[in-house]
Amino acid sequence: MKKLSHMLLGRLVIGIFAMLLQFAWMFLVLYQFSIKFTYMNLLIRIIAVLVVLSMVYKWINPSYKVSWTFLLLLSPVLGILTYYVFGRSKLTKRTRERLRRVNQEVVPHLAINQDVLEEVRKKDESVYCQSKYINDWAKYPVYENTSTSYYRCGEEMFPEMLRALESAKHFIFLEYFIIQPGEMFDQMVEILARKVKEGVEVRLIYDDVGCISTLPPRYYKILQEKGIKCAAFNPFRPILSIIMNNRDHRKILVVDGTVGFTGGINLSDEYINKVERFGYWKDTGIRIEGEAVWSFTLMFLEMWNYINRTTEDYEKYHPSKFRRQPFVQDGFVQPYGDSPLDHENVGENVYLNIISHAKHYVYIFTPYLITDNEMLTCLCNAAKSGVDVRIVTPGIPDKKLVFLLTQSYYEPLIRSGVKIYQYTPGFIHAKCFVCDDEIATVGSINLDFRSLYLHFECGIFLYQSSAVMQVKEDALDTFEKSEEVSLQFCTERNLIVRFVQSILRLFAPLL
Q1: pLDDT digits over 398-420, tens only?
Q2: How far is residue 280's CA from residue 120's CA, in Å, rounded to a whole number?
Q3: Residues 6+ apart with CB under 8 A from 379
Q4: Strand pairing of 439-443 and 457-463?
Q5: pLDDT tens-digit profile of 220-271?
Q6: Phi/psi at 487 (5° precision)
Q7: d(CA 242, CA 90)
Q8: Residue 4's pLDDT is what?
Q9: Helix axis angle, 93-106 relative to 293-308, nearest 10°?
Q10: Which of 370, 186, 392 lies closest to 282, judged by CA?
Q11: pLDDT value at residue 16
Q12: Domain definitions of the chain by residue range
């Protein structure tokens, strides 16, 4: 009873209820006006048509256009209100300007090493093109002197994270979508608080909406009392606003500018299987040590200074300040970030480039398979060309409607030769690609519209690094533990289920 009461009185439920009341009130007011006044009804319909025309004019994803056009023309009042709140992915002009200013400070510190890029070119022209794309459009360079280690699950990576924290002498940066008190996070906080007393600078960023059901409001004050500098990204306010669309979905840990971690693993007990949610929780992560960590350091500082409206001496966190001996060389490593505000879908384009240049195979882990037509066509064409394309999705979903939507994409993929596997032991939250024994990417970017278009994300592009084959070995092992989905499973589903899937697919960009 206490747990139910806590849930009902929690920020999430109260916030959703408050926003629904606002939405219902605005809808009823507009609807009543449209009924009573003919000119108002006509005006609303004209506005709906103008919104549709403005979307047609913009260079945005066609799937978005179709979904919003259908809703706006089906119900202009509902469509206009929904579009006002959820349809515009851009932050306010003032907020965008603040982020642009911080970005202009950071980019000069991400100087490309032309010699390393030319070395990639000598080895493989198509990999060079991918690396150059990330450098030119995401502004993150490729590095050579960086070692890599891949982790098949959270409970493998967590001890390494603790060891890295214990080794800190100068600074620790953490940026996560979800944090939750428990065995995992409490151990980390204990180390962080101790490190603060030793003179180590500790900063933490968490996404307020991501943590809305896991943390009390103003949790950052509790951490600040321990000496941990803390900032909440885009604090949740129960007011209808477009800024709730953009979330900080990144997972970054940086220690002394020389060691970095990323992947799909958040700081909560289910990610290390200390509590069970949706069966066994399979996630993946990667540790890098060397020059490439600099990109993650700057990625974090850019977000920190954006949130706090501050600036600083970025170079004092450069890895060369804390380590004189050379780093281990382990292929080519290129961390990258993706922002919803720069009109460049870096995360999706990295994925598309990997698929389109594959010669032998592409293996993919994703918790959600909600693709636009470009991604669907690319996957199908690769399989039709003889590339072994395999995708692993959850066997036990975390969101049933989203899982039903994911399954709706199976049929065209399977018909084209793509092999789909559902992870039988439970839920797979990993976001990994591995290709042709030479290329991989590990990060926070799901194959869904929110990750690819609306969230701040990050990942690491790997070429000829030891982690590449580690990802492949994990993929082969995961296939053995998963069940391959047959075409019969898709075609023989209940007619009502298939109808619901069609409706969900129509509104996929809005979910």
Answers
A1: 989 999 999 999 999 999 999 99
A2: 39
A3: 355, 371, 389, 391, 413, 416, 418
A4: antiparallel
A5: 888 999 999 999 988 776 555 545 678 899 999 999 999 999 999 999 999 9
A6: -65, -35
A7: 8
A8: 47
A9: 140
A10: 392
A11: 63
A12: 2-87, 93-122+145-331, 346-510
**What is the predicted pLDDT for the residue at 244?**
61
The residue behind tokens 């060691």 is 259
State the chain's maximal CA–CA distance in angstroms. Answer: 77
Measure CA of the first residue to CA of the last residue in the chain; give whole Å.
32
Please give the structure tokens belonging to residue 238: 């129960």
Identify the pLDDT of residue 217: 75
All residue ranges of the chain with pLDDT < 50 are 1-9, 242
**Tokens linked to 124:** 């493989």
Q: Which two tokens stand for residue 210?
A: 């991501």
Tokens found for residue 479: 């296939």
Both tokens of 496, joined, read 């009502």
DSSP states of 379-433:
HHHHHHTT-EEEEEEESS-SSHHHHHHHHHTHHHHHHTT-EEEEETTEEE---EE
Map residue 123 onto helix, strand or coil. helix
Domain 93-122+145-331, what fold? Endonuclease; Chain A (3.30.870)
- Going by the DSSP 8-state scheme, the letter that residue 452 receives in this structure is I
Report pLDDT for 67: 78
User: Nearest-5° angle of CA 19, CA 20, CA 25?
Assistant: 100
Amino acid at 12: L
Tokens of 403: 């899982």
Q: Is 3.30.870.10 the CATH number for 346-510?
A: yes
Using an 8 Å Cβ cutoff, are 68 and 87 in contact? Answer: yes
